[in-house]
Amino acid sequence: MNVAKKGYRGEVEVKELLSDLGFDAERSWGSDGRAFGLASDIDIKAKRDDLELHVQVKRRKKIASYLEFKNANLVAVRQDRGKWVFIMSEEMFKEVLK
Questions:
Q1: Per-residue pLDDT tens digits for 60-84
Q2: Which domain holds residue 93?
Q3: What is the distance between the terminal CA atoms of the chain, rounded to a whole angstrom?
Q4: Which of 67, 86, 87, 94 stands 20 to 30 A from 79 (CA)?
């Protein structure tokens, strides 16, 4: 599968996941958030009640092993002098948004 098709399919999967969770989710035209009037790195805009998510989708063949979920359901990472980034499993994401 070529990279563009792989990325497109990943964006569609995430859009459908958010729609299933009750969000009004849209994929930006050409994977460019400027179609929404947002930054170019936004692939999906999703809104439910007062919550609006701006999502960048990355689909990889393999992710770094320290990001894999073994016994935890949330991984926190931070680069030096940076902000914390929290990554959660799909199951935890669904539970938090219920």
A1: 888 888 888 888 889 999 999 999 9
A2: 62-98
A3: 34
A4: 94
